[in-house]
Write a structure and sequence with these properties.
Layout (H helix, E strand, L loop, with lengths): L18 H13 L2 E5 L6 H14 L4 E6 L6 H11 L4 H10 L1 H4 L11 H10 L6 H13 L5 E6 L1 H9 L8 H20 L4 E6 L4 H7 L9 E5 L5 H14 L6 H11 L4 H18 L6 H12 L6 H32 L4 H11 L10 H10 L3 E3 L5 E3 L2 H11 L19
Parallel strand pairs: 1-4, 1-5, 2-3, 3-4
Antiparallel strand pairs: 6-7
Helix pairs in contact: 1-2, 3-6, 3-7, 4-7, 8-9, 10-17, 11-12, 11-13, 13-14, 15-17, 15-18
The protein binds adenosine-5'-diphosphate (ADP) and magnesium ion.
């Protein structure tokens, strides 16, 4: 019985499919390969990793640690998070606590009674800019000394790297670069040193590679072998919809499910779940059990594309702002809106934008090329066989056009009015 997913990560009875991916990741872990799990947001990276850890945890072959760096502001915070999450590895925890003896003294046996959040604050107090590397090394050694090999999942690392790189004005600074470099080389060193005992899986909702490439730090990620998580294909998405409809006792005929998938174009699991949820509520309100093609169209137009109340799609904008900053975001906004309105983006237009957005003072700020790299890498746009780019997701394209396309007037001279052009 597949349960609805909501918007947080899912595992167990809410987790659907991804069998091949689970197998492939397990194989990597057993080979001692470090992985960089990449995909655009909401593809199910966190869920996949959580489910993998859950399954591996049951085998007795591994111990597992899951670290989320979303809220870490600096390297020391990241080490505090790593230290506290390593609590799940029995054979390492005592050694980790021993390493923090100076900040924990006086607690004695009461350590087990302290809430995890409070304990983290205590550990954090013992970590600073001068000692985070040694503290971090000690955690890695403790994990490596565990009887079973450890799978260490680190989620949202790119968010931290982004924070390290930039100042409050979203500019990449030399100090920031040094800090990011230091953190990544520390991680790489430990990954190499403990290969075989600790397998690292990095993941995050923004791409690490474009970020590192922008600042010339790509080599720091070269111990990680990329694993690209794809959207569901239409068959899988339709099967997921069918299982959900069974669980919630509604009827979604095949043509209805196919129509849902083709509207999405790219079956990002979260969008499939969202569509199901909205159809489910729509039927409930109408007091019906069986959905028609008209229901699909209505729900798509009125609910999936509604400008308000689509927190999730707004989140795409938030992430772009985070990663591209105050100077890069307007470029992305312009390019995405242009693409949504005109259906595609060609090289000529890109050149015009490159000219338009070039400024004298462009140190530490992303260029049109950098922005496009992020938009391609993070799954907003995709190159077509004819060399033009277009939105990957039909949903995001329609939503973006609704939100920004209304009075859109491109900053570059429009050469044609889009839609009428044969593709
Ligand atoms: N394997 C899956 N089965 C069912 N739903 C999924 C699956 N993967 C992702 N989802 C849906 O997508 C949402 C986002 O998943 P999440 O793992 O947080 O994505 P990411 O980490 O890539 O941003 C979940 O809340 C769930 O609704
Ligand atoms: Mg995630």
């Amino acid at each position: 019985m597949l349960k609805k997913g909501g918007s947080n990560w899912v595992e167990g009875e809410k987790f659907f499919d991804r069998e091949l991916e689970l197998e492939a990741l397990e194989e990597r872990v057993r080979d001692g390969t470090h992985t960089l799990l990449t995909a655009q947001r909401r593809m199910g990276k966190t869920s996949l990793v959580r489910e993998l850890l859950r399954c591996l945890g049951k085998t007795d072959d591994f111990d597992t640690v899951f670290v989320d760096l979303e809220t870490a502001m600096n390297s020391a915070d990241a080490i505090a998070e790593l230290s506290i999450q390593a609590k799940s590895v029995r054979g390492a925890w005592d050694r980790i606590l021993a390493n923090f003896a100076n900040v924990l003294k006086g607690l004695g046996d009461r350590i087990d009674e302290i809430a995890l959040a409070d304990l983290k604050v205590k550990l954090r107090a013992g970590i600073d800019a001068g000692n985070w590397k040694q503290r971090g090394d000690a955690v890695f050694s403790a994990l490596a000394g565990n009887e079973r090999p450890v799978v260490l999942a680190i989620d949202e690392l790119p968010i931290l790297v982004n924070r390290l790189l930039k100042d409050e004005n979203d500019r990449i600074t030399p100090e920031g670069k040094q800090e990011a470099d230091a953190f990544l080389s520390w991680l790489r060193k430990n990954g190499q040193e403990h290969q075989g005992q600790i397998s690292i899986i990095l993941s995050g909702s923004v791409g690490l590679e474009p970020l590192l490439e922008q600042v010339g730090l790509s080599a720091q990620a070269n111990i990680f072998s990329a694993f690209d998580l794809k959207p569901w294909n239409e068959y899988t998405a339709a099967s997921c919809l069918e299982e959900l409809s069974d669980t919630y006792r509604i009827v979604l005929p095949l043509d209805v499910r196919q129509s849902m998938c083709s509207k999405l174009r790219c079956c990002i699991p979260h969008h499939v779940q969202m569509f199901f949820d909205k159809i489910h509520h729509h039927l409930k309100r109408e007091g019906r059990q069986k959905a028609s093609l008209d229901d699909v169209s209505w729900v798509y137009q009125q609910e999936m594309l509604s400008v308000r109340g689509q927190m999730d799609l707004q989140h795409y904008e938030g992430r772009l702002k985070t990663i591209l900053g105050k100077t890069g975001y307007p470029i992305a906004l312009e390019i995405l809106t242009y693409t949504a309105v005109h259906d595609y983006l060609d090289d000529e237009t890109v050149h015009l934008y490159e000219k338009y957005f070039t400024t004298q003072d462009d140190v530490g700020t992303p260029s049109v090329e950098d922005v496009l790299h992020v938009l391609h890498h993070d799954g907003y746009l995709e190159r077509q066989p004819d060399g033009t780019s277009r939105f990957v997701s039909g949903l995001l394209e329609d939503w973006w056009r609704n939100r920004y396309g209304g009075n859109f007037k491109s900053t570059i001279e429009p050469r044609q009015s889009g839609r009428e052009v044969e593709r």
